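FW: tagging you since you asked about this chain on Friday. Here's the raw sequence from the shared folder, copied in full. Didn't touch anything.
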Amino acid sequence: MADGWPLTGRAQAMELVADAVGRRAGGGGMVLAGAPGVGKTRLAREALRMAARRGARTHWAAATRSARSLPLGAFAPMLGEVGADPARLVRSAIEALIPGARGGVVVGVDDAHLLDDVSAMLVHRLALRAGVTLIVTVRSGEPAPDAVTALWKDGLLSRVELQPLSEPELATLVEAVLGGSVDSHSLRRLWEITRGNALYLRHLVDAQLECGRLCQVRGVWQWRGHPVLSPGLTELVDSRVGRLSAEVGEVVDLLAFGEPLGAGVLAALAGAAAVEEAEQRGLISVERDGRRLPARLAHPLYGEVRRARTSVLRARRLRGRIAEAIIAAGARRGDDLLRRAVLSLDSDVALEPQLLTVAGWRASELLDLRLAERLAGASCSAGGGFEAHLLMALVLFWRGRCDEADVELDAVYHLAATDAERARATVPQVANLFWGLARPVEAESILRRALDTVTDEPSQLVLTAMGAALDAFLARVSRAADSARTLLARPDLPGLAVMFAIWGLALGTGLQGRSDAVSTATGAWTDTVVQRWGETAPPAESSMLMFVFAHVRVVVLRLAGWLGQARAVAEHFRGLAADTPGIAQHMASVLTAEAELGCGRVRTAARSAMQARSALEHETDPGGWVFNSLLVSTLSLAMAGDVLRARDALAELRPHPAHRYRDPEVLLARAWVAAAEGAVGEGATLAREAASIAATCELPTQEIGALHAAVRFGDATVAERLTVLASAAQCPIAGTAAAQATALAEDDPEGLDRASVQLEGIGMRLAAADAAAQAAVLHHRHGRTSAGTAAAVRAQALASACENAATPAMRAMLQPSPLTDREREIATLAATGLSNRDIAGRLVVSVRTVEGHIYHACTKLGVTDRSALAETLGLGRSTPSR
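HL: got it, structure written out here
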């Protein structure tokens, strides 16, 4: 790769190479083998540069096919002559490369499999000479001269097989080159198209940057649109593919537009001999899958290049041939109909509305909403009727185009001919109004009207269950739970009604800290509820709702303290969305952020949440996912101590009308930002206000979380209320939060030590770090230096495991000072750039009082201005406001 693209993912190989070039006196070296583009040449050149920096004499020779006809052709540039007597040439070459036969020489030979026999003999002789280090590259699977293969077969040089970049290695490399975070879907696409080939990757990324398809949105790099192939990348692929006959080209083209294809189908389309030749040349791969032999292109870029060069009419003809071949083969596998429908969209075969609709529902089940929209649109245009328009409306809703969905749903409702169809149209209409357009009052009105008019009992049950789910989201938790229990007691509950009822139960009782709800919400879905869910087979329109359901589970689990289960749910859904572009991946990122926040991995949580927020920049907010991402971003950034970005996230965060159960957390996010800014007292006040809101809504789990935040800010006044809540709640967070609050109120450092251990035990490592930090301060205050040091070491280790989070409790432990709490609070706010008037307004004191506290703080700390004050407080330089 060219300069500017750092070596990464090659640490082990680089260590071996460094060791080889470091042993100049003993000679030896290494053979770097691998497929084209994995970075062999780059690594070898880096080795020679390393040797030169150490004072070695270096030489570089590159073998080529054109120079292969001349003896010592690869070494001609450095020797100045070729074609004479081979033996004399080898002797002369050794003398030229190693004058005086003294050590300290490193020779690099690139593409040694292309060496002529004399050059290969020279390389072999050099490998036998003391004081010469060889760094040789060869292409895996290519024939090489015997003298070259003897290098590793006879043990003269060690051989290292370089593999393509793994996905994590590719992500590290791309983010290093771009200098910022890249959204997970873009990284996945880059890996899928390049398969970790570093040279292909470099050309692909450069091309997307040049054309503007790879750009930053809210600080996150995103790749949008189809790949643009640069001439350089196309030439690289062409050189790998080589010249193709018409027959083999047909094989490659058929797979470019229709892979995977069964080997029998492909042979029927292109001829068995051509298929065999393509496989023998490494252009396609055929691997057994059960009884099938699916054929695929050996590398995704082969298809990209061939598709880019294919005319529109030829492409339509190829797709049509493949679609007809799938029909002829029987279309026996589950997704054969989907593939046939997709191929028919842009082919010369007639469109079938029913096929397009069925395929569209299947695409939505697979979470590929862009494809589902294409299929639904084609079916609607071809007269697909109610089913096609219902599918289109749902896809528009889930893709965030909620105004368009509202119009389409009105048309769907008028196409409905039965009560069952009217109910199926009502569910997405209510969902779109409630979550998409954030008009819960109107949504509930339509739901009540439908319940009054629909007489079909299964439809009535679905609508009633949806009402329970809406109640839970609107923080009417008792009503939601009662309704959900009544519904789930029925053996005849339809699948969609089961899902909505479980939402109501999980939120309705989970937020009340009830053990039965927590058990349900933790994912122990092996009981009769799950069995019934599977038996009732939820309809295809519930596929995307599963992510909302997953979010409900993760939030309840995180708030209750069941953090292992929360991460398990998030991981499961991230896996489901891994290969699917669009909203499903963004939802999965929010789930990951919620789970990681609970475990204290605050920077990972912020990264995932901000990636989701960035990806949704150009869309409306389907289901409140932008709101959820901003909420988690604000909390995690504030806990990480990233004040500026936490402020930015908070500035966008607003309560969501359809997510009233999260109102306490919105206020708690304000509390954490205030505390991160240094206004710890204000943060504690806001946390108590959040707890009050939760108490009013009968959300004890939320109340416990808010009061626990106040405790972490140093509030010693809430222990009694937490103890009362803990006596009724049956979830892990309740008792541990009460224990920390009691120890803080009683000035008991040993109690805080125990609370820290308990918090770590349930997975809340950052809260455990705060408890340990508070214990360290109290131990030192009581003169127990050893115990204080031990607690401080524990706190720092836990904070380090939480990606070096910087909470108020950690700052107070690490930066002891002679300041009073009020002086420290005002000084910290001043150091972060707030003006005296801003500080006075936030703390409800006079400007003169603020000035006095800043003066006293500066005097005690021996500083004269705000910049020095910021450095002394460990906040770096600030920009003072006037």
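FW: The first helix runs from residue 11 to 22.
HL: agreed, and The chain has a mean pLDDT of 85.
FW: great, closing this out.
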